[in-house]
TrEMBL record:
Name under which the protein is recorded: OLC1v1028943C1
UniProt topology in membrane: Multi-pass membrane protein
Molecular function per GO: cellulose synthase (UDP-forming) activity
Keywords: Cell wall biogenesis/degradation, Glycosyltransferase, Membrane, Transferase, Transmembrane, Transmembrane helix
Pfam families found in the cross-reference section: Cellulose_synt
Residues annotated for Mn(2+) binding in this entry: K285, D309
Major location category of this protein: membrane
Species for this entry: Oldenlandia corymbosa var. corymbosa
Active site location: D147, D451
Family annotation (PANTHER family): X-BOX TRANSCRIPTION FACTOR-RELATED (PTHR13301)
GO-annotated cellular components: endomembrane system; membrane
Entry binding sites for UDP-alpha-D-glucose: K117, E118, D147
Length: 732
């Protein structure tokens, strides 16, 4: 293990600066806070003056809704107080690291969990893209964790190991930028006999992998050596299932022996599927990552660890070196725990209808957090200092066996008996019994957003993190392409976030104590994400229902208080929009992002909250439902055209459609009514709802494709609107 040191008198490897808008943001926040105080006063007044039970109930509902909005706005200001951007000076790196031997080792973890939801071919592409990093290959080890325990995935990787011997030298000699073969062959590369040749090899590999996928198992005709044959025998024993099987660890490439077709060393490539048993919890991805930490410690124990999801391939071969520009400064910054690259996606449709880019979450807010303690960990594209997994900077937690410690030096062949035996032992399902794994050591257990939770805990322990967001994205990933998938993912996040919110490591108490007010508040903003459902649902239903009953709940246009509402709404929305566009997006994408925020407020946020409470009460739990990465052709086409995909009879769509219909009814009613005095704001809100709901109406009425709104949902929702309207009439 090469030490990460920085010789004195070093050239500058990276620099940072505060964004110019910082001061504007701060002044602005002060003004907006005053407006919020005025609103509180206005609400208090309304509450005191309310004359009936009904008006009191309405006032208190609006007060709570606005309180939550104000709370979320306040926590979000932490992202705006000290935004910091960084730049690396890669050209100076070779002045600091003068020979290959001095590069620190890099262990890369790739997680996959289901060959049918995460096609092995694309996992292979991810692996090849990082195996081909511009970095000494003898320093790279790629570990693939297969929680699906699938021979199909192992087979795909055996093929990848063979293809890699040609692919790596091809990339390096031709200075290819897209080192995921799939991305490369989809780009407009210049054709030559060499590229033809390599493309043919890729196609051959692809056909093989796909036909094995179709068969559902690896039959003898695909096996070329006795060694391979032996590797698959374990699956042939009848008792092997994905929930119950012994660990499988296969070294597919060994750097010290295997060479590419040009005779250069290859990186290590290791396939592993940790042992699974129904009687032990496996902790989903966090469990997989901890098994990876241990197995890699036994084999290579590199000081830098990169975690990657199977659907996030490397888009820039220089990334590992760029990251070194931060790591080499470690002596000056001994608490640097991890370097997070943003999640950026390929294949988004032009206006990103599902807001899948999550631009604020993945690209804008981390800049703000970087100026505080550092960005949150987002599960993929993150380079860790291995040491962070063993306690805080000044409180080392010793693992149970010395070989797992960050300072242990491995000098045995990774394929040797001794190493393999130990690897098997640490990949066992009962290995973590009575140990600190998941609590004080490794990735933390207890939340479905193991990434957010682990990052938060690490920063609380005293580590810092850095946000690395170069112009050419370091990694590119897949997005969910149906509304149901997008919301399902968000729902899982909500469950995970609430698990943190209500744990003893809550961001508001433990967080503030450990990392200070502002930094903790950036985490609090996410911890409370699901409560956005309160104001969104209130605003979706209450103003419309009141409008239908002729009850005015906002100030008249002629009332000076009206301007307060107008200011609060326009300015908050305006600032979000401007920030969005400044950070390189479009108005259209911002519009869809805010629409998805509203949609989540009626779907994944409340349903995630429900699921969380079910889990607490011990009623059914879903666990980690994977986001599907497989694209149905028709569905893909609709996505590319920017058409919303409903299709599923999900209960989540019921509140959404109900609100959409109600807003339309209220808006039309208001339109026909002549005397609108005092109802303008409610008309505006209903109209805003209608504008946002256009794709929903289309899906209910105009479309006949498979992605339309299921009739059942439309009927239930329409009936609910009737019920709501009638019962509200009885209330006053
Ligand atoms: O039991 C499991 C479940 C999942 N995974 C892997 O976890 C990754 C993320 O799963 P995915 O279904 O793609 O979830 P997303 O919602 O797209 O992922 C986001 O949210 C997760 C937390 O909920 C983070 O772990 C991810 O990094 C982040 O990209 C994938 O590589 C899976 O193979 C496992 O290894 N084991
Ligand atoms: Mn994913």
């Amino acid at each position: 293990m090469a030490p990460i040191i920085n010789p004195a008198g070093k050239p500058k490897l990276h620099s940072q600066r505060k964004l110019r808008r910082t001061y504007f943001n701060r002044a602005f926040a002060a003004i907006y806070s005053l407006a919020i105080l005025a609103l509180v006063y206005h609400h208090a007044l309304a509450l005191i003056q309310s004359k009936s039970f009904l008006s009191f109930s309405i006032s208190i509902s609006m007060l709570i809704a606005d309180f939550v909005l104000a709370f979320m706005w306040t926590t979000a200001q932490s992202f705006r107080m000290n935004p910091t951007v960084r730049e690396v000076h890669l050209e100076n790196l070779e002045k600091v690291i003068t020979s290959k031997e001095n590069f620190p080792g890099l262990d890369i973890f790739i997680c996959t969990a289901d060959p049918y939801k995460e096609p092995p071919l694309s996992v292979v592409n991810t692996a090849l893209s990082v195996m081909a990093y511009d970095y000494p290959p003898e320093k790279i080890s790629v570990y693939v964790s297969d929680d699906g325990g699938s021979e199909l995935t192992l087979f795909a990787f055996m093929e990848a190991a063979k293809f890699g011997r040609s692919w790596l030298p091809f990339c390096k000699q031709n200075n290819i930028l897209d080192r995921s073969p799939d991305a490369y062959f989809k780009s407009n590369y210049s054709s030559s006999s060499e590229t033809q040749n390599i493309k043919e090899m890729y196609e051959k590999m692809r056909t093989k992998i796909e036909s094995v996928m179709e068969k559902g198992k690896v039959t003898d005709e695909y096996i070329t050596s006795g060694e391979e044959h032996e590797a698959f025998t374990i699956w042939k024993q009848g008792s092997f299932t994905r929930q119950q099987h012994p660990s499988v660890i296969q070294v597919l490439l060994e750097g010290s022996e295997d060479r590419d077709i040009e005779g250069n060393p290859m990186p290590n490539l290791i396939y592993m599927s940790r042992e699974k048993s129904k009687s032990y919890p496996h902790h989903f991805k966090a469990g997989a990552l901890n098994a990876l930490l241990r197995v890699s410690a036994v084999m290579t124990n590199a000081p830098i660890v990169l975690t990657l999801d199977c659907d996030m391939y490397s888009n820039d071969p220089q990334t590992a070196k760029k990251v070194l520009c931060y790591y080499m400064d470690l002596p000056d910054n001994p608490n640097l725990g991890y370097i997070q690259c943003p999640q950026i996606y390929h294949g988004l449709n032009k206006s990103d209808i599902y807001g899948s880019e999550y631009k604020p979450l993945f690209q804008m807010n981390p800049i703000g957090m970087d100026g505080l303690r550092g960005p949150n960990y987002v599960g993929t594209g993150c380079f860790f200092n291995r040491r962070v997994f063993f306690g805080g900077p000044s409180s080392f937690v010793q693992p149970e066996i010395a070989q797992l410690g960050p300072d242990s030096v491995v000098n045995m062949p990774i394929n040797g008996k001794e190493v393999m035996k130990l690897a098997d032992q640490v990949a066992a399902c009962n290995y973590e019994d009575q140990t600190n794994w998941g609590s004080k050591i490794g990735f933390k257990y207890g939340s479905l957003v193991e990434d957010y939770y682990t990052g938060f805990r690490l920063l609380c322990e005293g580590w810092h993190s850095i946000f690395h967001d170069p112009k050419r994205p370091a990694f590119l990933g897949d997005v969910p392409i149906s509304l149901y998938d997008a919301l399902g993912q968000n729902k899982r996040w909500c469950v995970g976030l609430l698990e943190v919110t209500f744990s003893k490591y809550s961001t508001i108490i433990y967080g503030v104590k450990s990392m200070g007010f502002l930094a903790a508040h950036s985490f609090t903003h996410y911890a409370f994400w699901p409560i956005w459902t309160i104001p969104i649902a209130t605003y979706a239903f209450l103003p419309s229902l009141a409008l239908l009953n002729g009850i005015s709940i906002f100030p008249k246009v002629s009332d000076p208080w009206f301007y307060l509402y107008a200011f609060l709404f326009l300015v908050a929305y305006g600032q979000e929009c401007v920030d969005f566009i400044i950070s390189g997006s479009t108005f259209e994408r911002w519009w869809n992002d805010q629409r998805m925020w509203l949609i989540r407020g009626l779907t994944s946020y409340p349903f995630g909250t429900l699921e969380y409470f079910n889990k607490v009460l011990g009623i059914a739990t879903k666990g980690f439902s994977l986001t599907s990465k497989v694209v149905d052709d028709e569905q893909g086409k609709r996505y590319d055209q920017g058409v919303f995909e409903f299709g599923v009879e999900s209960p989540m769509f019921v509140p959404l459609s109900t609100a959409a219909i109600l807003n339309l009814v209220a808006f039309l009613y208001g339109f026909l009514k002549i005397n609108l005095d005092g109802l303008f704001v409610q008309m505006f809100i209903a109209g805003f709802g209608v504008l946002n709901s256009i794709p929903i109406y289309e899906a209910m009425v105009l479309r006949s494709d498979k992605g339309r709104m299921p009739t059942k949902i439309t009927v239930i929702s329409a009936s609910l609107v009737v019920v709501l309207c009638v019962s509200s009439m009885f209330l006053h």
